[in-house]
Amino acid sequence: MTLLASVLSLASVLAVMTLAGATAPVRAQDHSSGHYGQGHAENHDWYEKLKQPGSNASCCNGTINGVEGDCRPTRAYQKDDGMWYALLNGRWVPVPPRVVLQQLSPDGNSHICAGKSGVIFCFLGGSPKS
Questions:
Q1: Among 3, 7, 15, 57, whose Cα sits 20 to 30 Å from the Cα of 108?
Q2: How far apart (Å, rounded) are the C-alpha atoms in residues 82 and 57?
Q3: CB of 77 within 8 A of CB of 92?
Q4: What letters, b where the CB count within 10 A reaches 16 and e where it falls short, cover 53-69?
Q5: Which helix (H) or strand (E) holds 13?
Q6: Residue 17 pLDDT class (50, 70, 90 cuts)
Q7: How far is CA 114 from CA 6, 19, 49, 99, 122, in A?
């Protein structure tokens, strides 16, 4: 292969790579990893109405004006025995049955309310799994 052919071949590969990168879809920020504060502001209006099971205490203690919220979207799954597992700050954790709310979220997805320390106040499982 001549030097000119090699340069042209390399240029073709680089052009294809550049075009592929330019046309690749841009992903929105993923708020489903259960990280503290992520996705709270978008859902605060209905988070603040959630009550901890067995009490009148709020699930949501965060606000949207500069303060990170403790409720946020997450990914979760339910095992055959009924136990839920959810992403909390990027780690899969078991959800205590006492904090599982028996209702669906307005968007049908899973949501978790937990403090910075990881204590879970409330959890809403997705429909059927999210």
A1: 57
A2: 25
A3: no
A4: beeeebbbebeeeeeeb
A5: helix 3-23
A6: very low
A7: 58, 43, 15, 10, 7
